[in-house]
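Design a sequence for this backbone.
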C-alpha cells in the first residue's frame, strides 16, 4: 500500500504544491483555496502565497470566461445560458445592469453573488473594456479570496488544536470547512437574485 511519511509529504508539496494549487484555483477556486489555506495553517504552505495564487487563479479563470464570450459573441450566450440553467428574464436584467454600470456589476458579482460564469461571459460578449473587466475582477477577487483564505486558515488552526484532544477532529473540521463553502455559495445565489 502506498503511503507517505510527513517528511515525504512536505517534500512533495514543496515541489508540486504551488503549481498544482494554481491550476486547481483556475478550475475550482473556492474549494482549492479552502484546502490550501487549511494546509497553510498546518505549516505546509505560506498563507500569503496561497492568497496571491487564489486571486491570480481566480482572475485567470475570469479572463478565460471573458474570452469565451468575446470570441463566441451573441451565439455563445444562449448555449451557456441553457447549460447553466439561467432564465431569460435573468439574462435580460443582467444585460440591463451592464448598460447601467458594467464595472460595478463585475465587482459585486465577483465578491457577493453566484452568477459569475454567465456574467463574465456576458461581459466578453457585450465587449466590455478588458482593462475595466480585469480591474474589477481583481478587486472582487481580493474580497472573495480573502474570505476563503481566512476561513480555511481558521478551520485548519482549529483542527490542529482540537486534534490533540479528539481523534479525527481534523477530518471533521475539514468537512465543516468544505460545508461552509457550499453554504456561502447558496447565500451567493440568493444575493444574485436580489442584485438582478
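Sequence:
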Amino acid at each position: 500500500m502506498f503511503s507517505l511519511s510527513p517528511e515525504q509529504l512536505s517534500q512533495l508539496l514543496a515541489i508540486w504544491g504551488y503549481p498544482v494549487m494554481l491550476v486547481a484555483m483556475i478550475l475550482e477556486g473556492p474549494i482549492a483555496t479552502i484546502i490550501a489555506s487549511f494546509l497553510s495553517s498546518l505549516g505546509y504552505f505560506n498563507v500569503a502565497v496561497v492568497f496571491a495564487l487564489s486571486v491570480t487563479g481566480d482572475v485567470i479563470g475570469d479572463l478565460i470566461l471573458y474570452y469565451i464570450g468575446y470570441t463566441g459573441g451573441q451565439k455563445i450566450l444562449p448555449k451557456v445560458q441553457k447549460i447553466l440553467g439561467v432564465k431569460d428574464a435573468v439574462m435580460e436584467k443582467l444585460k440591463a445592469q451592464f448598460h447601467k454600470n458594467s464595472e460595478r456589476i463585475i465587482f459585486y458579482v465577483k465578491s457577493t453573488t453566484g452568477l459569475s460564469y454567465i456574467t463574465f461571459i456576458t461581459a466578453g460578449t457585450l465587449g466590455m473594456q478588458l482593462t475595466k473587466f480585469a480591474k474589477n475582477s481583481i478587486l472582487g477577487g481580493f474580497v472573495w479570496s480573502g474570505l476563503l483564505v481566512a476561513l480555511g486558515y481558521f478551520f485548519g488552526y482549529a483542527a490542529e488544536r482540537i486534534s490533540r484532544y479528539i481523534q479525527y477532529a481534523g477530518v471533521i473540521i475539514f468537512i465543516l470547512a468544505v460545508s461552509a463553502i457550499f453554504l456561502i455559495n447558496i447565500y451567493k445565489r440568493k444575493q444574485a437574485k436580489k442584485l438582478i
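The two ends are 53 Å apart (CA to CA).
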